[in-house]
Amino acid sequence: MYEGAVQDLIDELGRLPGVGPKSAQRIAFHILDSDPADVQRLATALTEAKARVRFCEVCGNVAQSEKCQICVDPRRIDSVICVVEESKDVVAVERTREFRGRYHVLGGVINPIDGIGPNELRIRELMTRLQDDTVKEVILAMDPNVEGEATAAYLARLLGSMEIRVTRLASGLPVGGDLEFADEVTLGRAFEGRTLVGS
Amino acid sequence: MYEGAVQDLIDELGRLPGVGPKSAQRIAFHILDSDPADVQRLATALTEAKARVRFCEVCGNVAQSEKCQICVDPRRIDSVICVVEESKDVVAVERTREFRGRYHVLGGVINPIDGIGPNELRIRELMTRLQDDTVKEVILAMDPNVEGEATAAYLARLLGSMEIRVTRLASGLPVGGDLEFADEVTLGRAFEGRTLVGS
């Protein structure tokens, strides 16, 4: 539809997740209107991120050297590992400021339809980290959906034989949510996990 | 939140129109998972588009040389010019295959709030193209909103003194639309512009 370079840009942008043909066109024209320095900064950020970012050899989180910032931080508690699906989840948990332990990023969830079994995830690396007796608790913080629950169940069974406390994040009503609009599974979990007032 | 290069990429992506913080993060992680060659292609498309795309010196459409593909096409009719706001509109009109004349891209609409008056648009260039008597009709194809109508009214007045037919695109119900859900202005226009059945 457009001449060479514009159409190339629209095509490339259209391959990004969540960017449809209309957005791709809108972004492309924004680029054409932008300052060349801004465009160069974006192009550099893309190639730099790809070139420089790797994954922490301990926990699998995104990192800029062999180990990520959290793994090298001496102030973190070594006895608790929070197992999450993706690096994004590390950021989500960090934002709560509730957790001071270490992380382990699986790199996904068990999903037979997509051909992802336990061997495709960083489960072996997790087991290696649990070899010495430093870790006393593993918190399974997968997403509360079918794949997340299945992965948590698999890990719970695997860790069951070890002298480690295995916990899961609480399920229940989201804060600020509305009981009336909660789905029945969430409301059911909120009942199941109800806590004593004043305790 | 993230380490250097990842956060830089998220920040840069977040500056694009229609890309919020969540999308920026999603795209950034997609980039980290992508093939380096794909990322390089996107980065190149960005800088190439910025470096190579300019605007046609005749009509103002996006182009890769001094003139755009439409202006250099000898098969187009020289006697009709369709005036549009943006290059995107050229593509939209081309898609209809209804129009075989030339274009003129204004580069926006008159919008005093944003400080855009007639001098900020390519109106002088349009008047220059109308100097010789080649052009017999000017079709004003601005968006049917307040700014578009105001710009069209301004141009219609400017062209009124010339021996040129000035037309506007028909307003009415969108094809496939629903009379019941049409806003009253559109429905009013559809009545005003009603056509004889069988004519």
From TrEMBL, chains A, B:
Pfam families reported in the protein's UniProt record: RecR_C, RecR_HhH, RecR_ZnF, Toprim_4
Name of the protein in question: Recombination protein RecR
UniProtKB keywords: DNA damage, DNA recombination, DNA repair, Metal-binding, Zinc, Zinc-finger
Described function: May play a role in DNA repair. It seems to be involved in an RecBC-independent recombinational process of DNA repair. It may act with RecF and RecO.
Xref: CDD domains: TOPRIM_recR
Zn finger region (C4-type): 56-71
Organism: Rarobacter faecitabidus
InterPro entries named among the record's database cross-references: DNA_Rcmb_RecR, Rcmb_RecR, Rcmb_RecR_Znf, TOPRIM_dom, TOPRIM_RecR
Protein's UniProt keywords contain Transmembrane: no
GO BP terms, alphabetized: DNA recombination; DNA repair
Domain of life: Bacteria
GO molecular function: DNA binding; zinc ion binding
Residues covered by the Toprim domain: 79-174
Gene label: recR
Similarity remark: Belongs to the RecR family.
SMART domains: TOPRIM (SM00493)
NCBIfam families, sorted: recR
